[in-house]
Amino acid sequence: MTLVEAIAEARRSDDFGPVVERIPYMAWMGIEMRVEDGSVRGLMKHSDMLIGNYVHRALHGGTLGALLESTAVFELLYSAEAESLPRIVNITIEYLRSGKDTDTHARAFVEKLGRNVANVRAIAWQADEAKPVAAAHCHFLV
Amino acid sequence: MSEAKTIVERFQERFAEAIPYNRALGLQIESIAPDRVFARLPWRENLVGHPETRILHGGAISASMDAICGASVFVALKQAMRIATLDLRIDYLRPAAPDEDVICEATCYRITEKVAFTRGLAHQGDPADAVAAVAGTFMLFRGQGGDLGEKLREPR
């Protein structure tokens, strides 16, 4: 099965696990994508490898950027029905709170889907969705 | 008696290898000038973001650039202190060619009382044909010594 076929099948079944498994970086990072209440929910399971500050046991900011970008990609695959992995043009990652050594969740919102470009926002949180640890704003070619 | 470590050795040991995710990425500090840090992200299959084209995942590049922009702040600061990324903007200029390492370079070009401003490039040998261009800002916590900041300054 090609990647495009796997994405089409994932959209039919609401199960993006088989697509995530094909992406080596996401599998290595422990980043998962699930469909929940009509949108994609990203999950980055905690592991010690993700730590960026060993004194405060805080997550490396780069891991949050990776989760936000991945969640934005999968939201486009799911709700904007992108056929293949959309190519990222740019991303701005804002760090709002220190990430702790626990699981991190993320959600993305397609602000505008044009003929060529999609504008997507994403937020990441841990215990409380109202207290995000990081947010991102990105553009993709679609 | 131990020999004093060079600044590259200090950053390799205490920044690239002591920080778990920098170590997981495999970042290697290549050289450090007063205004610039150069590091290598060795190409590895588990950093791939697209299974068919085998281009690197954006997250691997942005995380490496976050780290190296931060390192450039530590190099530029005159005292040890804690720092934290405020924001990071990445323009993905072209896909990274598979099987080739990525060079991450960053410079901290302005330090104010509370904020440090950095910019950098990720490329594969030719900075004029970069993979990504980056701008990062960092909060400075003056007076909060910062364990890492101290360690990066100590020559031994």
Task: Summarize the structure in short.
The complex is a heterodimer of chains A (142) and B (156). Chain A has four helices and eight strands. Chain A is an alpha+beta fold.
Set out the fold topology.
The complex is a heterodimer of chains A (142) and B (156).
Chain A: H1 3-13, H2 17-22, H3 24-29, E1 31-36, E2 39-44, E3 51-53, E4 58-59, H4 61-79, E5 87-95, E6 104-113, E7 117-125, E8 134-141
Antiparallel strand pairs in A: 1-2, 2-6, 3-4, 5-8, 6-7, 7-8
Chain B: H1 7-17, H2 20-25, E1 28-33, E2 36-41, H3 58-76, E3 82-92, E4 102-111, E5 115-123, E6 132-141, H4 147-153
Antiparallel strand pairs in B: 1-2, 2-4, 3-6, 4-5, 5-6
Helix pairs in contact in B: 1-4
- Global outline of chain B: globular
What would CATH call the class of chain A? Answer: Alpha Beta
Helix content of chain B: 25-40%
* Individual helix count of chain A: 4
Task: Please name the two chains that share the biggest interface, counting residues whose Cβ lies under 8 Å from a Cβ on the partner chain.
Answer: A-B, 39 and 37 residues
Whole-number count of domains of chain B? 1
User: What is the CA-based Rg of chain A, rounded?
Assistant: 15 Å
In the CATH hierarchy, what is the superfamily of chain A?
Hotdog Thioesterase
Mean pLDDT of chain B: 93
Question: How large, in whole angstroms, is the Cα Rg of chain B?
Answer: 15 Å
